[in-house]
Amino acid sequence: METQLDKVLTECLVQQDTVGALVANPQGLCLGAKGIINPNVSGIGMAISEQVAKLEPENNAPATICLYSGNKRCIIQKDGEITGIIYKHATESSNN
Amino acid sequence: MEYVRSIWDCLVSICSCLHCTEDISRTAQTETERTHLLANDQQNQSPALRRTNSDLNNDCSQSLPKKDDQDALSRLVQDTAINMINVGAMDSHHLEHQEYTDKIKLYTQRLHQQWNNIQHPGNVPKGLLKDMPNHQFYVYKPVYSEDTSQMKKFIGKCHIGVTDIKIEHKEAVAVVVPFRIP
């Protein structure tokens, strides 16, 4: 069934500083999540990506959003019907 | 049709009468192109017109428009007269050359000012932060290239993974729907 997607999520978590990954469908429903990430953020992540797409409506390239918090950063991208959300540890350089 | 014609006749008589009164009053005060043709329609009406109106009211009280309609009509005439530029009173034939060029300069300058004030549709910014003059200042934190590339690869693989999702029917599903059970 969704083994391929599970594998992709697990591979993503292996990357440096990555703590969680999530995939959402066009309705904002979580298709899969791994690591330290709440599956409920799928809807919010998709809504943010849709709002950001309105910043430059004529640009068809998918926008990458990076939200910074105290010790983590959240990267969101919507490409076609899929929205990906990745949580990463904030590095020293990103805090400055 | 008779009704419309009577209104039209009334309008024509008002206009002609106004023209007469304008000629008389022209000596009293100097006119410009912006002087209103109708200062006050009631006062400017000649006795002949007033008599015509009263006769009309008496004779054709049934077919004539009501008071509200007449008011609306006179308001319309008044508005049109206010917005009208009296070209005959412009006195452009007696302009000195210097005055003429000064007026050209003045009007050109005003046009430029108005043109600059207009928000041209091509230059109007689009998007959510269009009312924020320097939005780069608020979003100065960088998006790292490694994050972007990681996300790009992740999304690409997810597309393949999502297409791989299939529903597997492992057991027969019997669906019983209760129907009109009291």
From TrEMBL, chain A:
Keywords: Cytoplasm, Lysosome
GO molecular function annotation: guanyl-nucleotide exchange factor activity
Subcellular location: Cytoplasm; Lysosome
InterPro entries per the UniProt record, alphabetical: LAMTOR5
Coiled-coil residue windows: none
Entry keyword Nucleus: no
Gene Ontology CC: one annotated term: Ragulator complex
One GO biological process term: positive regulation of TORC1 signaling
Pfam families referenced in this protein's UniProt entry, alphabetically: LAMTOR5 (PF16672)
Family: Belongs to the LAMTOR5 family.
Protein name per the record: Late endosomal/lysosomal adaptor and MAPK and MTOR activator 5
Source organism: Drosophila lebanonensis (Fruit fly)
Species classification: Eukaryota, Metazoa, Ecdysozoa, Arthropoda, Hexapoda
Gene this protein is translated from: LOC115629826
UniProtKB/TrEMBL annotation, chain B:
The protein, known as: Ragulator complex protein LAMTOR1
Gene Ontology cellular component annotations, sorted alphabetically: late endosome membrane; lysosomal membrane; membrane raft; Ragulator complex
Organism: Drosophila lebanonensis
Subcellular locations according to the entry: Late endosome membrane; Lysosome membrane
Membrane topology, as annotated: Lipid-anchor
Amino acid composition bias (Polar residues), ranges on this chain: 54-64
Xref: PANTHER family: RAGULATOR COMPLEX PROTEIN LAMTOR1
Taxonomic placement: Eukaryota, Metazoa, Ecdysozoa, Arthropoda, Hexapoda
Alphabetical list of SMART domains matching this protein: LAMTOR
Family: Belongs to the LAMTOR1 family.
Gene Ontology molecular function terms on file: guanyl-nucleotide exchange factor activity; molecular adaptor activity
GO biological process, one term: positive regulation of TOR signaling
Listed InterPro entries: LAMTOR1/MEH1
Region of interest called Disordered, as start-end residue ranges on this chain: 41-68
Keywords for the protein's UniProt record, in alphabetical order: Endosome, Lipoprotein, Lysosome, Membrane, Myristate, Palmitate
